[in-house]
Amino acid sequence: MNLVQIVRSVEDLFDSLDSDITNLQNQTGIHCIENCIHCCTSSKIEATSVEFLPLAYHLYKKGMIRSVLDRMDQLSNEWTCPVLNVLSIDNSQPGCSYYPYRGLICRLFSYNYVTNKHGIRQINACKNIRINQPLQLAKVNELLLTEPVCPKASDYYSRLLFIHFEEAHNLYPIAKAITVAIEMVLTHLRYKGKKVM
């Protein structure tokens, strides 16, 4: 697969996941807290570069790679997401600056289940959802007793391996994952003889 095919395959995977999450939300009413960026600011989040290829490719097409790389240089911290908007400036909302292109880890956060040591499925919801939505959480866990009504992270990461086997094995701090994805896009474009920045 060439880079564009890989990007399209990751986007298809995102569409499938988004559909699963929407079904879960419709069945249970569980949802992210408005303007919450708890998952974005959690420490030690790791991701693959493959899940950020759609973001990197979008940044290239919009001529924004340099601004994101400059932001990474300012942060000098591989654990801080460089596309996170933490302030509300000019009526913009806190959160992801490129929400439609966020990675798999970002999409799965609080919407995936784990199986405990007794083999019982339970949603892996964040603290804010656990505190603010106990009824919705209970409904999800009740449904999970009989069927997997929400995504399982390992299933989606296994599907990512089929898209790009070599690189999907590698986990990086979030900013490093985005950097590697950008480098993959730039390398591909240089190979194709295109102007990259």
Keywords:
197 residues, two-stranded antiparallel ribbon, 8 helices, globular
Structure, briefly:
This protein is mostly helical. The chain contains 8 helices and 6 strands; from the N terminus they run αβααββαββαααβα.
Q: How are the secondary structure elements laid out?
A:
Blueprint: H1 3-28, E1 46-47, H2 53-61, H3 65-75, E2 84-85, E3 95-96, H4 104-108, E4 113-115, E5 121-123, H5 127-132, H6 134-144, H7 153-163, E6 172-173, H8 174-191
Antiparallel strand pairs: 1-6, 2-3, 4-5
Description:
- The protein is mainly alpha-helical and 197 residues long.
- Helices cover 49% and strands 7% of the residues.
- It has eight helices and six strands, in the order H-E-H-H-E-E-H-E-E-H-H-H-E-H.
- The protein has a two-stranded antiparallel ribbon.
- Helix 2 (53-61) packs across helix 8.
- The longest helix has 26 residues, at 3-28.
- The mean pLDDT is 90.
